[in-house]
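User: Okay, second chain of the day. Same drill as before: sequence in, structure tokens out.
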Amino acid sequence: MGCKLQNNEKDTVSRMNFVEKSLRDLVLRAEQHDGKLPSTLELCVMLSTSASTVNRAIATLKKEGLIAAQQGKGFFVNGNPKRPATGMVAILAAQTVHFDHPVLGKSAAGIQRVLQQHHLQSVLLGMDAGNGAADRRGKNSLLSHETLVNPNFFDAVIILGLAASAIPRPLQPAAIMRLASAIPVGIIDGQYMGGDKNIIQCWNGFDAGMLQAIIHLVELGHHDIAIILGAKDNDTARMQRRGAEMAAAVYPDKKLQLHVIHASCTDEAGSLETARLLESGQVPTALIAGADDIARGAYRVLTANRLEIPRDISLISFNQWANIETIPMPVTSVMVNFDYSAERCAEEIVRLLNGEAATADDIMVPVDFAARASTAAPPQ
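Assistant: Same drill. Structure tokens below.
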């Protein structure tokens, strides 16, 4: 039985590129990492091409160190492929528009500063649902979802705070682990990946920040506190909720009432959930907003209902700024060091790219707490 020949092979170069890409995809599949590649004959049938084309593609992958021959047994995936460096690092967010957000924009800029210091280039990519990868300007890129998990295109990938519900299939844990078997992966405030040495995870201390915020309010005399957070499947919201649970354990005898509400990190959610609290007739003495946008919406509804901050109700937000737009007072804040955590992650990725061991692969970045004019003792 002979190989199936491609009779309409008009463009040899194009055909060769297709066969090489197909072989690379086979090499990158998790099930192939410890196993044998298909035989030349099987590859001919699979790819509908000639033995000479398959052999030339195999020779290219052998030269790159991706595969190795074992005499009498065939070709196997090389455990330590010498992949040529691209000098490019991908920075990913769930959506392209997130790079215009003051927080993720600063994170991306911090990563780029570190990479530039080490003469590495970067590209900002948003995993916009249904559109493949979009570039920084929102235009469709040639990079598809499949491309984003192909290490032949990047030396490393850094993923910015993706909520579980926003992670497309190529970035689900199994795909991330597969990617990390070939190149370093950085994750900032995302899903925990289980301590792989080629994965650098940086966490901003949202749980510790929530605990500090509640301790501050309890020390002022508050016992009835509402907390409005992002969605339940949002990693940041989960950490903040854990901080609230820690606070409840710290004060078991103070009859601490913590009303945790999951919504979304938007101005509209802050307005809606605050309005519902007031309509219930059970107005708390303090409110903690899990994000600045939530705080803005909450403030608007509170003042519209003639509640004065902090005389009638105290307000705390999670942010980096003393002043939140539309709130005419310095807001008591959990100050999250987003730019520092991004730079820290990038520094460890560079160490891995230089062949050095990371100083740490699971990094908790502390937050700061600033008590300002928006909190005071509860009304008597």
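The two ends are 92 Å apart (CA to CA).

User: Thanks, on to the next one.
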